[in-house]
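ok here's the first one, seq then struct tokens
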Amino acid sequence: MAEQLTAPAGPVSIYAEASPNPESMKFVLNAQLLADGVSVDYPNLEAAANSPLAQELFNFDYVGRVFVAQNFVTITKTTEHQWAQLIPELRTFLKSYIEANGPIFTVDPAAEQAAAQQAAATPANASEADQATSQKIIDLLDNYVRPAVEQDGGNITFKSFNDGIVTVNLQGSCSGCPSATVTLKSGIENLLKRMVPEVQSVVAEGITI
């Protein structure tokens, strides 16, 4: 059986923070769940096989998506219930689960995410120039875009660069967010086009609006 990864033991404090997506709420902890820059997005229970914590959250019938990052969990609801009704229950569950040293992951996602990012940056059929451009884009996303997106309870990952088109994946609160398309075009696309002349446009997977 794989070693189960848990958060550090000790008293846990949690506060809820609204995101630009009205259906998503960010629960910020004083405990580290993942290494900086590592995150996982579970759009459904089946995808959460590696996370006992996420599986437990999906037992709440109003939980539709779970996103876990360094020190927060973003939960997207599926019902018409108001967050004022749901936040106390979710906060109590998270606090109890983590203080009880409940398993967060069965396998650390860090290595898998690093391998996926490396594979995306260096596809076998890409030229050296395209690979260099892809790495430049990844660095810009990591250094300038991801910190801001994480503040909103989500994440952005690089998927591919082909014929001037950058494809990214939006996770957590960014998926289904009404302002995601505007952010993508007016913010991220403008930044990349200004910093990387080879970029012509940016499109996203993970937007469900």
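and now the second one, same deal
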Amino acid sequence: MDPDSYRHRGQRRALAAELRHKGIHDEQVLTALLAVPRHQFFDPAFQAHAYQDKAFPIGEGQTISQPYTVAYQTQLLRVRPTDRVLEIGTGSGYQCCVLLQLTSHVFSIEYNQVLFERTRRRLAAMHQPAHLFCGDGSLGLPAHAPFDKILVTAGSPTIPRPLLRQLRVGGALVIPVGDAQTQRMLRIVRESEEEFVREEFETFRFVPLLGRAGWEG
């Protein structure tokens, strides 16, 4: 694994400044991105792309998310150090590692077996203590619920009801919802056992959320 050099840290500082200029204002989120060596999620031949503010293919039809998108979703989530966080869509593991800078209680589930095995090995080599699972993330992780925060890193046609049921009262779900082309970022806060408050934010384009409560439901 490529070491984290002074040059890499300088590239992250420049990236954080770019994200701040684009409207990311949560200093804890920016500090978290500064701490995660994004180049270690890239094959050596593609590391020149690591600190550009863009998504990049990682195989299996998936991408490592654009840093702005990672920061935007994380900012909406408002993670506290004691929060239990569920991430739907581990992917490369980059977003997971950003969350781990904010709380040590991160659970992440990946649908694709090949990506899961690759990312499990990568995070182990990076000594990142996430709880990783392979399975249908659209159904959440009911055996480990409830969660204070749930973050979905793939576009869903609807808000999956299993995820709502796994939110603690007072907790929040951040999820992009829409069609296959564009999705609106939503934040759903569970006000009581039966009451949820929905907020809408910017539009994005994510890979599809696969599973029984997603695009293969």
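notes on #2: The helical segments are 6-21, 27-35, 67-77, 94-100, 113-125, 161-165. The beta strands are 56-59, 62-64, 84-88, 105-110, 131-134, 147-152, 167-178, 183-190, 196-204.
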